[in-house]
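User: Reviewer 2 asked us to show a designed sequence for the structure in our supplementary figure. I'm pasting the structure tokens here. Could you produce the per-position amino acids so we can include them in the response letter?
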């Protein structure tokens, strides 16, 4: 990323927070997004992705695509390729009828699980505390203080659609504008808390925001979807889609709106144009046990997998 080195300085941190500069970035990225949504990039982008990241036979088994370069593999734009769907039967909803189960909202790598999350936190102090007041843009904050944040990172070559982790009623949807290029001041100049600087050329060195995923939950463009679970032991939860760097486009499906019913595994929206992050935020009433394979940083989390469950009786509300 061209701006990585400047992000990783105190001067860059201050500069990239400026609202005027972010407005200019927004204006600059609009024609770039239009280009990525045109037909001009499809063949080259698809061939590059197939050759570098997938075995071609498995790619066509997994994703809805055509094994034919003359048809652009069935995609009419790079964005369509980026947001490709899994074939039917790939990543089914696990334990769909068990109200105690929480399912993965995104195909991702687990970044962190944090408990006892506070209303506000001092970001310039050591570490990356979550700050609910900022993350949630002031919405329903009291209901989440003392709760849990489950955060993952979506890889650029992966699957970029989001799915509901619970069955319930959508209480609110809000799109929040934010900064494009920012990293935690705790990791500026190449350090990661008390750890040694990342190896030159590594993902952590070339993409400083990968060391700041907790911090950006309060800073970047994001989409908030609040869902009141039908299971009282889960209660109100929030899914947060987090844009990163120039990938700050989050679109929600038309049927995801206040008052609508959603079911576990239902598609809710998608990212566009690159890798991103997401969070699931739960209140303190949700006593969640996350399952083996989905509870350690770096774990590959499969979308719609059963990743954890609440320890209560799973009683449904009557609403």
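Assistant: Here is a per-position design you can include in the supplement:
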């Amino acid at each position: 990323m061209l701006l990585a080195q400047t992000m990783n300085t105190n001067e860059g941190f201050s500069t990239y927070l400026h609202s005027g500069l972010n407005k200019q970035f927004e204006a600059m990225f609009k024609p770039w997004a239009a280009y990525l949504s045109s037909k001009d990039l499809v063949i080259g982008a698809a061939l590059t992705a197939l050759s570098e990241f997938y075995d071609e036979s498995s790619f066509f088994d997994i994703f809805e695509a055509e094994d034919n370069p003359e048809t652009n593999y069935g995609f009419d734009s790079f964005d369509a390729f980026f947001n490709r769907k899994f074939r039917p039967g790939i990543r089914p909803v696990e334990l769909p009828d068990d109200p105690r189960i929480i399912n993965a909202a995104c195909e991702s790598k687990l970044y962190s699980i944090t408990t006892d999350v506070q209303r506000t936190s001092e970001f310039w102090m050591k570490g990356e505390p979550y700050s609910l007041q900022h993350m949630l843009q002031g919405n329903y904050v009291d209901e989440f203080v003392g709760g849990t944040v489950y955060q993952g990172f979506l890889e650029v070559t992966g699957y970029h659609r989001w799915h509901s982790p619970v069955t319930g009623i959508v209480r609110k949807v809000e799109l929040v504008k934010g900064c494009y290029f920012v990293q935690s001041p705790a990791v500026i100049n190449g350090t990661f808390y008390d750890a040694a600087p990342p190896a030159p050329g590594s993902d952590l060195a070339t993409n400083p925001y990968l060391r700041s995923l907790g911090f950006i939950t309060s800073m970047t463009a994001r989409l908030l979807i609040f869902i009141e679970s039908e299971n009282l032991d889960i209660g109100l939860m929030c899914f947060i889609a987090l844009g990163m760097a120039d990938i700050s486009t989050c679109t929600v499906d038309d049927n995801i709106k206040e008052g609508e019913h959603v079911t576990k595994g239902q598609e809710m929206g998608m990212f566009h144009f690159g890798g991103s992050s997401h969070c699931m935020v739960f209140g303190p009433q949700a006593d969640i046990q996350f399952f083996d394979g989905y509870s350690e940083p770096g774990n590959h989390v499969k979308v719609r997998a059963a990743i954890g469950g609440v320890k209560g009786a799973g009683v449904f509300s009557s609403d």
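For the response letter, you might also mention the following. The chain is about 20% helix and 25% strand. The radius of gyration is 19 Å.
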